[in-house]
Structure formats: structure tokens, C-alpha cells
């Protein structure tokens, strides 16, 4: 009998990279690429090559995204056209009959084919289907069935502000589960067309026995696992948490909730999303990206999980090549900062080589991401730098610029000299609040040229790209060009950005809260004492001590950069070694074993 494995990796952000910063997309993309590489190089041995699918959302045009602020548009231009075989053609036709439209594309990693299926769900409210003898729209059919199967009462959520997002996740999960269901049942359905039992059995024997595995990243697709379980579809399933919704809402208070064994969700938790998240209980295996997330899953949902940490893939292995990239990108940031400062504020022209760029990048969650802590620490850093200048220990021409890269969504029609020049009319919501926080502390970059400040904060409210209207640099280039990154999160289940900085050989400062800080104890060391990735305790220390430590660690990187370039390069290499050690190979092996039962080499 012919056997074949099918691995389906699902997520709301799965598929081609849209106009959005990182996140779950990076994780899914890394898992897929590493899985294909291991199948190609023999790390994973199978008699027949498993078929790999990536399934997610399709946003075909402006306005089709459920989140109008993000306005994501799916770009499949880099994919090869997908020519489905007879089996997949039948499945796609069946889905379309059921009102489920999808777009397909292919990427080949050497000889391994990755099939991407992007489901178009925004028009489910206009597709008419039959359910229990009545003609209703597909979206209402999905909600009614979810109530019948699992008891999810979507009527309770109709008055909630996030009802559109909830409906999208339910629709997407339904579409994914219907694809899986159709795939699994195809063998029986094909054979059943023959009335003669022997012919039917013979036809069935000619088709491969499929062993299907489904890996769902994040709560937006957990309903797919639950629905398949309730329908009796036999597959292997893994549900991966990158955070928990109650934990996100509690933020830095989640640590206290864990210590107090307080599993209450709290008033600010969106009940509909948390309900979808709790459906991970239907998975065969639940995984968490870090120890704190594992504790939260148990605390809030009573579900046991296994820790599988995230990783990072290095695109440039040669450290000299990386250091050269850093130098070029740093020069570009320095020159643009100097010229934009001069043009925007009609000021004294600063020496580009004396500008010291640092950065912080994350979602726009002000308290959770620790932006108040960062700004307070920059205020302390300014006083420290001033004293060093006045004491003659630092050249008075140096200026430190901390770029805070965070945004509600992509922007167009930006002012000239953006982001040094920010018009309030381009800022919305929390962006405006951060800018006000910068100005209330007197950290505006306009104070740099005449020496009123030696340290400033520059809000960069845009998704970085080579055409973002500001520095026109991709995320990796900006990270490479800065002398350090700082991530002072008060709630951070893992912190991929810390590894992404290390990938570019950029030293960084991370809070103790972040999920990979415990891995630093085993990191390779090239510099005695303080290394290329520094951890600041923001759990047990008093607030003033924490922000003082942020300022002191930043000052350490600045002093090393200005005084001892050789030592600074060693710090860069050390940060890169940490990223290299925390690669995606081991997590991918763990996931594959959980999904298929086959242990890679």
C-alpha cells in the first residue's frame, strides 16, 4: 500500500509576506524553509517526500483586510503558478462548490515543492449556502455550526467592537478545516463512485494512504483543530502559542498573576478571542514558545504544553561580510539623520560620523513594550553623556539618536525629512501618545544641534521598507546600521527582535521578562564581563534601578563603540553567535516529530 504524508502549516499570517512587519509570518516561513531543507539534505528521511502546504488568508485589494488600519494586501508575485494535479483539482473544485475561494502558488526550495493556499474569506457574508434545510450566508452557517459542534455562541459577541476580527478567524479556520477534511476524505469518496464493492476496493488501493498533520500557529486558526476533532477527522494536530490573550492584556501584571495563581481573565480580555484560544485543548499537542507562556496556558486555560522556543536563520554567515554591511548601513543612517536634522530645523550641521544611532522596534503597545521605561532611561543617559562630555571623557560632537520604530499601520504622503520631521496630522492613536511622551521629556531631536540635548528619541511611525518614505531601508538594514538595539518589554513571551538584531551582528539590551533571556546563560562569550546581549532585571528591581540599568548598559555600548572599535566588533560577533546558536533547526525537528511521529537525525 502506498503511503504519503501531508503537512499543513496554518496561521492568520501564513503565506506570502504582506506589507507588515515580521511576527508570526517570520516563524511560519522559517519552519517551512527549514523543513524543506531537512527533507532535501536527508536530515528527515522518508520513503516518499511529504507534501507541504502553507495555508492562510488572502487579502486581494485595499479594504479586504478585516483590520482596515493595517490594510494588508497579499502579494503573490514571487510565487510560481500552481498547476494542481487531479487530486488537488478535485479538492479545489469541491471547496468552490461550498463557497470557499482560494488562490494558490508554489515556491520550490531546491527540489521540495511548497504549496501555498490563500483563502479569500471576506465575502463569506455574501455567499449563500444551505444549512439544516435553510438558505443562509456562509458566515452565518459557520457560526451556527460552531454552536452546534462546540457550543460557541457567536450571538454573544455581535455587540463587541472586535466582532469582525472574530468572524474572520472563524471563517478562516472553517476554510482550512474544510480543505483538510476534503483532503482526508478524498480516497473514500473517489472509491465510492463505483457500485461494485471489489472495484471500489481496488480503486481505493491504488490511491495513497494519506497521513495528514496540521500545525496551527496562534489562536486565529485554533477553531480548525477543534472542528476537525468534532467532525471525527483523524489527523495529527499541534497548536502553538506565541503568547496568550489574557497574558497580553495583563501585560507586566501577568507575572504577578502567575505568582498568585490567579487564573481570572480580567475585564479587559476579549472573551470571544480567548474562547477561540482555549480551543487549543482539542489539539494532540500544545506548544509554547517560552516558559512564561507555558505557565500562562496552564493558568488561564488549564492546558499542559511543551516548550519549543523560536529561532532565527542567518542569511550571512561570514562575520566580516556582516561587519561590512553594518558599516555601510550605519553610514547611510548617520548621513540621512544629519541632513534631515539640518533641513528640518534649519540648524547647525552635525558631523554624520558623530551620530550614534540605536533603535527599538515592536508593536505599538506602549506599556507592554516598556516605552515609558525606555524614554526615562534615555533622559538619564542624556545626563550621563553630558557629564562625560563636560569631564572631557567624550567628544562633545557626539549625539545619540534612539529610533523608536512602531506604527499602527503603513503610511503614505509623509512629510519631507520624515521621520525627523513629524506632522501631528500623520500620527494616530498611540503614535500621538508616544510623540507627546517624547516631547514632555524634552527628548525631541531638534534639541540636538545646539547641544541642549546629547540624547534624543525619534518616533518612526512607519513599517520599514526600501520605499517607506523615510530612510528607505529594510528592517535588517536598519538593525545592522544601528550600534545597539534596546527592548525594554514588560510583557514579552519570546522576543524575536532580539535575535533578529543578533542576526545582523547588532548588540542589544533585553529585559529579564523576555522569553529567551534565560538562554543567554549558555551563550558563547568573546568578551569578559558584559557581553553582546545584556539583560536588565525589570521583574525584581525597583523602577528607578531598572531604568538606571537600561541607561548604564546603553552607555556601555556607546563607550565601547566610541573608544574601542575592536572590542565593539567582538560584542557584535557575540550577539551574532547567540542568534546562530538559537537557530530554527531544533524547533523544526521537534515540530516534525510531534506532527508525524518520525524523529529526524
From TrEMBL:
<dbReference type="GO" id="GO:0005737">
    <property type="term" value="C:cytoplasm"/>
</dbReference>
<keyword id="KW-0328">Glycosyltransferase</keyword>
<dbReference type="InterPro" id="IPR028098">
    <property type="entry name" value="Glyco_trans_4-like_N"/>
</dbReference>
<protein>
    <submittedName>
        <fullName>Glycosyltransferase</fullName>
        <ecNumber>2.4.-.-</ecNumber>
    </submittedName>
</protein>
<keyword id="KW-0808">Transferase</keyword>
<dbReference type="InterPro" id="IPR008631">
    <property type="entry name" value="Glycogen_synth"/>
</dbReference>
<dbReference type="GO" id="GO:0005978">
    <property type="term" value="P:glycogen biosynthetic process"/>
</dbReference>
<feature type="domain" description="Glycosyltransferase subfamily 4-like N-terminal">
    <location>
        <begin position="214"/>
        <end position="315"/>
    </location>
</feature>
<dbReference type="GO" id="GO:0004373">
    <property type="term" value="F:alpha-1,4-glucan glucosyltransferase (UDP-glucose donor) activity"/>
</dbReference>
<dbReference type="Pfam" id="PF13439">
    <property type="entry name" value="Glyco_transf_4"/>
</dbReference>
<dbReference type="Pfam" id="PF05693">
    <property type="entry name" value="Glycogen_syn"/>
</dbReference>
